[in-house]
Amino acid sequence: MRKFFGTSVVAISAAAMLALAGCGSGRDGDSGSSGGGDAKGFAANSLIGVALPAKTSENWVLAGDLFSNGLKEAGFQADVQYAGASTTVADQQAQITAMTTKGAKVIVIGATDAAQLATQVAAAHAAGAKVIAYDRLITNTPDLDYYVAFDNFKVGQLQGQALLDGMKAKKPNGPYNIELFSGSPDDNNAGVFFNGAMDVLKPEIDKGNVVVASGQKDVKQTAIQGWKAEGAQARMDQLLTSTYGSKELDGVLSPNDTLARAILTSVKGAGKPIPVVTGQDSEVESVKSIVKGEQYMTINKDTRNLVKETINMVKALQAGNAPQVNDTKSYNNGSKVVDTFLLPPVAVTKANVVEAYANDPKLAPLTK
Ligand code: BGC
């Protein structure tokens, strides 16, 4: 298991601060080498673009604010954009193109659709910008320079394990009936979370200790387009009607908090006992629900740390240094292995909710 904490320190030397504005650094990422470190850097007040997906969960809203403030504090000009709620891919493609045209030196992208950005990323790269994938990997492009994220496979493993632990704590012996949900199919993370969870759940399913009573075990059958709460609620309503007339539902694998709360709304609406439901993102309403004893768990992927590490990368690039990475092997995007800075996610249940958010001024008061 990887154990990295957000300890990266990027030193910016005075000499590096004088670095010349670097345009036209060309396609130096094509070789698949470590990228960055092309001792050139760029002007300290350069434009940095941040293209985020639609606001499908609180973490994206927070990230936008943190990037705007953090980049400005570091002396950069910041252009932070969100894709719209419906035409997400086209919006984001146009935003990245506009950032490139405006001369952004680094473009940070939280991809709406992992597989639909290769053209825009290639153009940005050719214009001399460095491209950083934020939270979600961008696939099938040799022009992506860096990836910064929480270990999202580990997120899935923690969810799968918590689901098993939570069910066992409630009812010592199985078999346990569960249902599986996954995120939006265009988000590369959705499959990563699901595979991580199945890495833990599949052996128990194979042994018969855990039963997916609907039979819907494939990621395609479990996907919720656009990470929409209403999609999850509708699917749970259907599953309850089709499968849980008399059967007991012990647990639900939910990939994030937004969907977890929608699943709980459905179950409560049907007058069924509350099953063990997983989540992710430490959203305010879900933390409250955990404290109340309804949602079983969430994942803490502290957005403040992820944005901080990303801005550290931008600062290093500005200074002409190679950004700090801690994984140069795991993230093959289909075209190259992408240099990655990975942070560790933390599982949170009622048992550790107080300590988990002790340093979070927004969440700590909710746990008292
Ligand atoms: C993020 C999750 C989030 C989901 C929906 C994923 O890519 O990693 O934290 O819940 O998007 O917004």
Chain-wise SSE layout:
Elements: H1 14-17, E1 47-52, H2 58-73, E2 77-82, H3 88-101, E3 106-109, H4 118-126, E4 130-134, E5 146-150, H5 152-170, E6 176-180, H6 188-207, E7 210-212, H7 219-222, H8 229-243, E8 251-253, H9 257-269, E9 276-277, H10 284-292, E10 297-300, H11 303-318, E11 339-343, E12 346-349, H12 353-356
Parallel strand pairs: 1-2, 1-3, 3-4, 4-5, 5-11, 6-7, 6-8, 8-9
Antiparallel strand pairs: 10-12
The structure holds beta-D-glucopyranose (BGC).
How does this model look, in words?
It is a single chain. By secondary structure, the protein is of the alpha/beta class. The protein folds into two domains: 24-150 and 302-343, Rossmann fold, CATH 3.40.50.2300; 152-301 and 349-367, Rossmann fold. It is 39% helix and 14% strand. It has helices at 14-17, 58-73, 88-101, 118-126, 152-170, 188-207, 219-222, 229-243, 257-269, 284-292, 303-318, 353-356, and strands at residues 47-52, 77-82, 106-109, 130-134, 146-150, 176-180, 210-212, 251-253, 276-277, 297-300, 339-343, 346-349. The strands form three sheets. Strands 2-1-3-4-5-11 form a six-stranded parallel sheet, with helices on both faces. It has a four-stranded parallel sheet with strand order 7-6-8-9, with helices on both faces. The protein has a two-stranded antiparallel ribbon with strand order 10-12. It is elongated. This is Sugar-binding protein. It holds the Pfam family Peripla_BP_4.
